[in-house]
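Researcher: I'm preparing a figure for a lab meeting and need a structural model of a single chain. I don't have an experimental structure, so a prediction will have to do for now. The sequence is pasted below. Please return the structure as tokens so I can convert it later.
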Amino acid sequence: MGWTIDTGMYYDAGNKCQLLATDLSLALGPLSATLQHECTAMAGNHESCDQWITTYDTHARDIVTLAATLANALLRYGDVLKANGYNWWHSNRAIANGSEPAKPTASEPLYDSGMALPVTSRGDNGPGLDEGAVVGLLERVGRIPNGDIAKLSTARDAWRTFADNANVVGAATRISGIKAKFDGSTDPNIIAIDEHLASLEQAAKLLAEAARGIVTPLSEHHDALNTMREDIGKQVAAAAVEIGAAIAMTVVIVGVAALLTAGTGAVAAGAGGAALTIEIVESTAVIIKNVVTVSRIVTVVGAVVVVGTASGGFTAIPDLARAGVAAAVTAIAGMAVYTASEELTYEASPKHGTEQRGDAAPAPTHGQESLDNSVLIKSTSARRVAYDPETGEFDVFDETYPGKGTYHGHQRSWDQLTQEMQNALVKAGVVNRRGKPL
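Model: Understood. Here is the structure written out token by token.
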């Protein structure tokens, strides 16, 4: 059975890969810009948040890197697929379908190795509290979680938008559809094509899963921090009524400068006229510390290191290096794009004469004629093989000048041909499985 060569199928599959690459890039652009420019220090630098910050930063960079690498890989594999179709057409014109296709070229990657990644979520946003008129309060309370609620909200929304993007959600399905185009193909490279598309499909699944997963810890951190601050305000206000003093203290989002004084005596009267004594300051500090201690923010950031906890959040993000998928996608992004020369020219090599010279096999008897009737061994290499019916010899040709279409060659027997070489001749309908001409 000969090859079923449909150049249009390769070009269609390649174009679909490259369209998806563009779609993913359009989805990644806004997310990347937001994480680089609008989320600096969003988690603060309170010691209780150290593990959360480290974990988030690692995942954010890994997910963005995978998205960019997947886009590059889809773009490049689109080039490779189109080159496959082009090469088969030119190497097997007698049995190829359709008119001569346009010669593909290697696309420039969408992202380079030096692309900007998300900035760290760590940063000093102050003590996390504005003591207002309650002088000495900060000294007694100490630092509390000091994330930036507005920035956490911005990051959460950016990730959610990316995760919900139809092109991110549907990427794996689209790649699966491309892979289905090759079902039943007799292309000798079909195993490699299936493997590469399967790697791209798996990477797309991991990307979608990871993007959904990172939204949860951001939402939890934002909501818990916001609730803690609201609770502090409520508890202090209630205590102020009981104490009988109007304490002008405001719990604000991080970024508002605090009056870091160390007052230990009575200070000016509050809005209600009562003096703020050391006892009032101490009582207020105790209230705030108690609220922080029991607040959900402590659970949220602490659960990061407790594997399997319901509130851990990050446990929903898959291992992006699973089964070597990330490495496979990186390799695809770096694949070379080989296109066969339209004109093949035979040029004898001084290494191969008319007879065997040591380990050097004889040159082809009819070099140019044999080259003209040769077939490509595989579409990702320039190497070719031919059968000369006049002499009964098999000739193997290698490109002398890469990309120039000039070849030299040597003779081999059927048994000396590699399995790939034999398969190429059999699939092209030149010989049978025993090397006998058809």
